[in-house]
């Protein structure tokens, strides 16, 4: 379900894209160092955003380095690492573990079961270190399961479970900034859940799988306008909380993500849905010449 909180590359300056990639590679390196290859395989854009956000807010001592990886073994890539990148790695591992457990429960996919087993002991260490966040993730799994079983069409209820969970994940400690971080996490969580459901809408209609948007339109394309309005409301609240934070470092990267990057999947989905109509229009235009 995760993976929507990323950059809009065409609108990002080259130096900012390079710095974003350094954080991304730093998170990847932290996952490998702390949890091995199985942990490294869980790398996500969402927790890269969290690492950059917390680093920009708290401005910890940050180590610059270079590393190679399996995907790019021939050259070293710059990395940025600090305590909040490590925190993002811990949360990344925890979320990946429970996501794989949930996939095994819902779909009985052997791959998900094997993946969860590989992360089990590592996740237990994270739970011991962060009991508040771990309990939030467990509660989220239970609440979402109950909502889906009821086949609830309440968008707030369905997305709220993800929001409450991510609110705790986005809050590493109780301090002056915790209320704002919780609000950012809460509305990003709601956005992620509803965006994922929007993206899967047509497929879920065909398969009969649960989708909170069901009944509001007959196709994803017909749903697009209403979905964008609601998703925009989620991001407006998230962005309002973000702008209350005293962030100067990497603000352009963070704004790029919150104001543009998060819409990548929505725009790609709508573009895909419009392709048959665009092709038909172009064909008609050619025939009319």
Name a few traits of the molecule.
289 residues, mainly alpha, two-stranded antiparallel sheet
How would you briefly describe this protein structure?
By secondary structure, this protein is mostly helical. The chain has helices at residues 14-40, 45-58, 83-107, 110-129, 131-150, 155-169, 178-199, 201-207, 220-243, 251-259, 264-288; strands at 63-67, 77-81.
Task: Provide a descriptive summary of the structure in words.
The chain is mainly alpha-helical and 289 residues long. The chain has a domain at 130-245. It is 72% helix and 3% strand. The protein has eleven helices and two strands. The longest helix is centred in the first third of the chain and has 27 residues, at 14-40. The mean pLDDT is 91.
Spell out the blueprint of helices and strands.
Layout: H1 14-40, H2 45-58, E1 63-67, E2 77-81, H3 83-107, H4 110-129, H5 131-150, H6 155-169, H7 178-199, H8 201-207, H9 220-243, H10 251-259, H11 264-288
Antiparallel strand pairs: 1-2
Helix pairs in contact: 1-2, 1-3, 2-3, 3-4, 3-5, 4-5, 5-6, 6-7, 7-9, 9-11
CA-based shape: globular
Most strands sheet: 2 strands, antiparallel
Separation, N- and C-terminal Cα atoms: 46 Å
Class computed from helices, strands and strand pairing: mainly alpha
Mean pLDDT: 91
Strand content: under 5%
- Strands of the largest sheet, in order across it? 1-2
Q: Could you spell the SSE succession in H and E letters?
A: HHEEHHHHHHHHH
Low-confidence stretches: none
Radius of gyration: 20 Å
Number of helices: 11
Q: Into which percent range does the helicity of residues fall? A: over 70%
Number of E-state strands: 2
């Amino acid at each position: 379900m995760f993976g929507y909180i990323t950059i809009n590359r065409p609108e990002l300056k080259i130096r900012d894209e390079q710095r974003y990639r350094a954080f991304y590679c730093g998170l990847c390196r932290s996952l490998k160092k702390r949890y091995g290859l199985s942990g490294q395989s869980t790398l996500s854009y969402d927790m890269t955003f969290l690492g950059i956000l917390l680093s920009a807010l708290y401005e910890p001592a940050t180590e610059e380095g270079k590393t190679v990886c399996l995907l790019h073994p021939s050259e070293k890539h710059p990395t940025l690492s600090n305590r909040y990148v490590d925190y993002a790695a811990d949360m990344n591992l925890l979320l990946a573990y429970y996501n794989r457990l949930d996939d095994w429960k819902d779909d009985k996919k052997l791959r998900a079961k094997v993946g969860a087993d590989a992360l089990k002991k590592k996740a237990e260490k994270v739970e011991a270190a962060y009991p508040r966040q771990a309990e939030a993730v467990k509660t989220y799994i239970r609440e979402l399961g109950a909502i889906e079983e009821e086949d609830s069409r309440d968008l707030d209820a369905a997305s709220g479970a993800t929001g409450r969970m991510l609110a705790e994940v986005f809050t590493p400690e109780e301090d002056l900034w915790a209320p704002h971080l919780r609000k950012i996490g809460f509305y990003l969580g709601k956005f992620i859940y509803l965006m994922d459901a929007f993206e899967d809408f047509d497929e879920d209609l065909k398969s009969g799988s649960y989708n909170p948007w069901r009944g509001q339109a007959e196709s994803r394309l017909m749903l697009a306008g209403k979905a964008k309005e609601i998703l925009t409301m989620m991001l407006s609240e998230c962005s309002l909380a973000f702008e209350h934070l005293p962030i100067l470092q990497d603000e352009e990267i963070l704004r790029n993500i919150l104001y543009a990057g998060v819409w990548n999947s929505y725009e790609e989905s709508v573009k895909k849905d419009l392709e048959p109509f665009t092709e038909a229009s172009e064909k008609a235009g050619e025939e009319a010449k």
